[in-house]
Design a protein that fits this description.
about 290 residues; about 40% helix; about 15% strand; globular; hydrolase activity; lipid degradation; Patatin
């Protein structure tokens, strides 16, 4: 599977579909050497590299109702709605700790995508391109959903969710020399992003980071353009896309039944697509 990239979209709690797909990959021994992930996609990518099957799924099943993770009352205290510190530092170190030794010893290339708040452009953090002590802050920055969490400082710069600047980083994966892409999305075929009402307040909300406000207002255009490009890559046998049949979850979904079903849908889809995926990897692309 040389020169093959695994590209993982974010999607907040919708990313539990990706968790299911990757657990199927772990079970079936699908070993991809290059992983690039955004937000929840990056979080899932870590568990894939360490081979910790069901880690993300079990963690959210245990903590999704915990007010330390998500609590609307936090807004009235002047805090962010989603506590990314709890997500990365507590949940990732206690009951279901990340196997950091295995992660950093892995020869797989891993890139975590964040958005630089000063430029509004993507920042691509490579696994072994920075001191290990910064890893949690980098992962936290990629998972810092706009309007729901605070910015994250790394080396004097502030960062937010990578999905603002590069929600599906297929161009980066290709620029790095990959010839085949396996892309896992959280939305069904035919989905197109639309401008949301809350983006009208982005200029006010991010008044100290005008480039973030600008990127947020244009995000849906860039996102839909990437989907169009991805369709072309599929036709040329460069990209293999795995996506759900429907998208019944919200970004901050807390319904355990829905989360469990969406995870299972991802797992089943991953198992179902293994044979077709192996054929895709053996077939030359059209360019």
């Amino acid at each position: 599977m040389k020169n093959t990239a695994l590209v993982l979209e974010g999607g907040g709690m919708r990313g539990i579909f990706t968790s299911g797909v990757l657990d199927a990959f772990i079970e079936k021994g699908i070993d991809i050497p290059y992983i690039i992930g955004v937000s929840m996609g990056a979080y899932n990518g870590v568990s894939y590299i360490t081979g910790q099957k069901e880690r993300t799924f079990k963690m959210f099943m245990d903590y999704i109702y915990d007010p330390r993770l998500l609590d609307y009352k936090r807004i009235f205290k002047g805090d962010s709605l989603l506590n990314s510190d709890f997500l990365i530092n507590f949940m990732g170190k206690n009951k279901y700790p990340v196997d950091y030794d295995k992660f950093f010893e892995s020869t797989k290339k891993f890139i975590c995508v964040s958005t630089n708040c000063n430029t509004g452009k993507p920042a691509y953090f490579e696994k072994n391109g920075y001191p290990q002590k910064y890893f949690n802050r980098i992962l936290k920055s990629s998972c810092s959903y706009p309007f729901l969490t605070d910015t994250v400082k790394i080396g004097g710069e502030e960062y937010l969710d990578g999905g603002i600047a590069d929600a599906i980083p297929i161009k980066k994966a290709l620029d790095d020399g990959n010839k085949k892409l396996i892309v896992i999305l959280c939305h069904p075929k035919g989905y197109e992003d639309e401008p949301s009402w809350y983006l009208n307040i982005s200029k006010l909300w991010y008044h100290s980071h005008p480039k973030v406000a600008e990127a947020l207002k244009k995000r849906y255009i860039a996102y839909n353009g990437t989907l169009y490009f991805l369709d072309l890559l599929e036709k040329e046998n460069i990209a293999f896309v795995i996506r759900p049949e429907s998208m019944p979850l919200s970004v901050i979904e807390q319904d355990k039944v829905k989360l469990r079903l969406f995870y299972k849908a991802g797992y089943n889809k991953g198992i179902e697509e293994c044979e077709r995926l192996e054929k895709f990897l053996k077939t030359p692309s059209l360019i």
